[in-house]
Amino acid sequence: MQGCTNAAVTGCHGAVLHIISHFYLGIRVKYKVCGWLFVGITIACQSRRLITLKKGKGLMKAIASLLMVLVIFVISSPVQAVEPGAEMFAAATGGKLAEMKQLVLDGAPVDNANAQGRTPIMAAAFYGNLRVVQFLLAEGADITAVDNQKMTVLMLAAQSGNPDLIQLLVANGADIKAKNKSGQTAMVVAKMFGHSAVVTALEQLSDLGGETAGDKNSKKK
What we know:
Elements: H1 2-30, H2 32-51, H3 57-75, H4 86-94, H5 97-105, H6 120-126, H7 130-138, H8 153-160, H9 163-171, H10 186-192, H11 196-208, H12 213-220
Helix pairs in contact: 1-2, 2-3, 4-5, 4-6, 6-7, 6-8, 8-9, 8-10, 9-11, 10-11
């Protein structure tokens, strides 16, 4: 019974982190000061939780949780609306497939990166927009792209909680073993956010030994 309770708490905590990160991204795009204020409030709440815990494993887990929140807030820096290609990013994050198709038809580059090194497919993956990701892949978007923090398309998709998106990306060559600057894989990211379905999908794909983009490139040589 205790194990079930702990699992439920972990899942709820992951869901809260996901909601917090999305809300934080939304407000920081237009209101940077408010965004950082929200981060401060989040840290304060987590710190209060630490004070109520006794020393031991519980305290260490709480500290680790707080650190993970900080890492995600830093790594998941949002797209700035003033940057070139902002319309592509807006369509990608909003899941606006028709708008995305028109932009590409009008000549918009699919791999144009913003100041954080994010490309439209990375933005679409973060928000779990499967159809937009499918379209961008068909248009030749780089699935091996990484941002300034070495976050991959697959890692960002792991935060969305969409296992179908994970399967799509791996089938198209996404590297399951890749790590970001914090040494985290897509699996670690999925576990941090409590996305059990994504974790299961990644475990199954790992067991199958799915071919990565790096493997495919090696064969071509």
